[in-house]
Every structure is written in structure tokens, then in C-alpha cells.
Amino acid sequence: MEVFNTPNKVIITCNRRLSPYLAQEVEALGFVIVRTFNTGVEVNLSVNECIRLNLNLRVASQVLYEIKSFRARNADELYKALVTVAWEELLPFDGYFSVTSNVHNETITTPLFANVKVKDAIVDRIKDRKGVRPDTGPELNRAVIHLHWIDDKAEIFLDTSGETLAKHGYRKHPGKAPMLEALATATIMATQWDGKSPFVNPMCGSGTLAIEAALMAQKRMPGLQRMNYAFMHFIGYDEKVFFEERRRLKELTDKNNLPHIVASDISDVAIEIAKSNARTAGVEHLITFEVGDFAKTTIPEGNGVIMFNPEYGERLGTHSKLEATYKRIGDFMKQECKGYRGYVFTGNLDLAKKIGLQASRRFEFFSGKLDCRLLQYELYEGSKERPGTVATPPEIRERTRERDSERTSERTEAKEGDKPTDRKIHKLIRIRDKNDR
Fold it and tell me: How far is CA 339 from CA 259, 302, 374, 427, in A?
């Protein structure tokens, strides 16, 4: 099976809602996308071309090369189909491999059982042909096989990535509630930052947003941080292809582009962690780190991007304290960041209302399982009016949900007894004022 030079179906996975940004990356590399879905894109490529994907993609999670698709109603049929695959031509008989899976089949109570069936089929096939059993285990640092099995439709893939591509290899000290590197990249892509104007990241935590901005500005690809991928452990791998791509990426790195990037945090410990991560990523010299309250953050002259990723009130902090923080964020952007585009990434839309500014755009993301928004604010000089913008379908849906939520809340409160409370009185006043306007 000459997979390294034979194009076939390839699925590039990503976290939910990141596929539009992943598609941008894949197309920028010159590849044609067959289809895009919520958690990835499909292309038709060889494993050698997958090597290039692995080294270049910032938003992806895994790059999966299809070996076989078939029907399987249960574990026995799964085994029978997989034992016919020429695994001895793909996996070294004295090597090591692991199995991952995405399984939704009524006969399977745990994906681990399906994984065992895949391992048994591969091991039995290789032992029958070579007389030796390869080692298996959970580590993803060697060859990885991936099973995708929904109802009776099964697909088996070579996972050419192994460890996820969503982590870019520089964050040795994650800090508290860190943003995933792939997500940070996607949010910066959403801002359409040009990579040359200032980028300011108050409340930077472990520095992920500032570091990703610096990496993007210098076109420094995440593959330069990593020397081990699953594709290296399949039969037919030619290391010349890998090292040639690494050489090309080094030559493309623009070390002369030095945008003004500022990262600040009130915690000196967080700043030390951010500096260490930036040093590992090779971009510490591009970032000005500051310790102090976000309202003291240096705002370089010119038109740039300022992005906040404050606490959401879900895992850290308390809601009442965060209300005041979000209000201060809005005041700071309005008073000190004129001429910039402001962004706040949050998983708490109630807190976002405390910012006190009208968002011009809303981008939908997930952080883990938490439904999040990246809110965009136009911070104009003087009294310049904001030009009209055409809302995208996701933005229209979001605004409709918020309006319906407010109406439901108003109806519910109206039914809660006759005795007014301070909260009800304040709510009624706000409704009255809104109607008066």
C-alpha cells in the first residue's frame, strides 16, 4: 500500500466552529477542499501532502488519511473487515501503534471495546504474515490508527498527526484556564489583523493570544516547534520530505516584521509564565510584557487591535466582581483605545452586556464545551458614526436569541407576584425608558 504517494480521502479535523478558519488555511496552501463541515474539512491528498498540512496548519487537530470504508453492524463484522487490510505494508512488525476512535454504534457500549477489536485485527494480521506481534498502547507518539464508526458505516484512517496539532508545542506552563492555541489563532484570524499594526492583549494570562499573534506576524509555522509526528512511524516514510518542508518554512519566516505587540497582566507570576512560553516559541523579543492593572496597559499609536479574554464567571472569580471588571473594560476601550478595533472573548453574554458598548459583530466559538462569543467594537475617534454593516446569518440568529431571551425574562418577571422588588422595579424602569426612546 503506497500511501505516501497515492491521493485518497483525507479528513482534517478541528474543534467545533473552527472549520471556516481551517478552510482558509488549507486553501492558502493551494489545496482544493471537497467539503467543509462543523468540525473539519475534507480534501483528497497523499500522505506526503499530509506532511505539509501537519507542519503548516495552526487551527487543525488531526490529519486523517483514509485506508478503508465499509459496513459493519457489530464488532465481529468490524474485525472481519479490518483483518483483510494489508497492515504488514503499513506498520513495522517490530513497531508500536495505538488506536483512537469515534464510535456511535448500538452494539458497542464503550469505544474502548471497539479499539480492542481494531488492535486485535491489526495484530492478528501482522502476526499471521510476519510471525511477530507489534506492541500497542495508549501513547500517541508513534503510529496511530483512527476508527470512525457511526451506526453501520465504518472508516479506518491513518492518523498522520498523532498528538493533536491544536497545541503548538511552546506552552510548557499553561497557567490558569488557558485558551487553546488553535482557538487563539482562529480568534485572531476573525479580527482580520494585518500582522503589522499594533496588537494589544491586556489580561494576557499565560500569553497565548500575544504569542500566536507574534507567530502569525512572522509567518512562523507551528511545525517548526515539533520533531515527532505519527506519519514518521508508517512504512514508506521518507524523512527528506519532512526536512525539506521544514527548510522551506524556515526560509518563509519573516524575521524583519516587528509589529508592536503588548501583553499585560496584573499577576507578575502570569507574566513570568507568558515570558517563558514566548521564549520557547521564539518570539519573546516581539512582545512587550507589562505587569499591572489592564487599565494601565500601554496603547501604541496608530490603528491596531486590542483583545481581551477576561474570566467568564464559570471557572474563575465571582460574578459580582466580574460585572465591575467588564464595565471597566468597556470604559477603558472607549476612553483610551480610540482608533483601534476592540475585541472581547467571553463565555458569559450576561457579563458582556456590562461592557456598555454596542458590538458591531459577533463571532461564535466554543472553548471546550462552553458556548462563547468574540465581540467586536469599533472604537472611533471623536464622534464619527459607525457605518452600517450587513449582519451575517449567525449574527442575526444570535441577536434574535438575545431578543427572545429578554422578552421571555420580562414575561416571567411580570408573573412573579404583585409585590414589587428592587430588581423588578429596576427592570420595569429600564423597560419604560426603552419604550420612551
Answer: 17, 7, 19, 34
